[in-house]
Amino acid sequence: MRIAARDIRLAELALDDVPALTGEALYHAQQAAEKALKGFSVHSQTVYPLTHDVRKLLQLCGEIDGGLAKALAPAAGLTQFAVRFRYPGEDQPTREEDRAMA
């Protein structure tokens, strides 16, 4: 969870930068969600799949704690940001898109 919190902090710093580093912020938000969900599954003594798919991890965590999965359902859309902005030529997200995912 400490590592997930660091990713959240990096996302916040990227948003505070001028101009905002929205692609980087979304990447770190995805990483934070992934790490937190995997951490929860480890804490619950549940083996998680080797995936970056937040939706799959939410399903797994939902089997452990349905309330948690419901509360974190909006994070499912973060999966695309694990790789979306890593390569040249990819359009960078707008600040509005970044805020909508937060």
How much helix, percentage-wise, in residues?
Answer: 55-70%
| Average pLDDT level | 86
Backbone CA Rg? 14 Å
Biggest beta sheet summary: none
Helix-and-strand structural type: mainly alpha
Helices and strands, in N-to-C order? HHHHH
Distance from N terminus to C terminus (CA atoms, Å) equals 18 Å
Question: How would you describe this structure to a colleague?
Answer:
With 102 residues, the chain is mainly alpha-helical. It has 5 helices and no strands. The longest helix has 22 residues, at 22-43.
Question: Short description, anyone?
Answer:
This protein has helices at residues 2-16, 22-43, 54-64, 66-71, 95-101. With 102 residues, it is mostly helical. The radius of gyration is 14 Å and the shape is elongated.
What layout of secondary structure does this protein have?
Blueprint: H1 2-16, H2 22-43, H3 54-64, H4 66-71, H5 95-101
Helix pairs in contact: 1-2, 2-3, 2-5
Which terms summarize this structure?
102 residues; mainly alpha; 5 helices; 0% strand
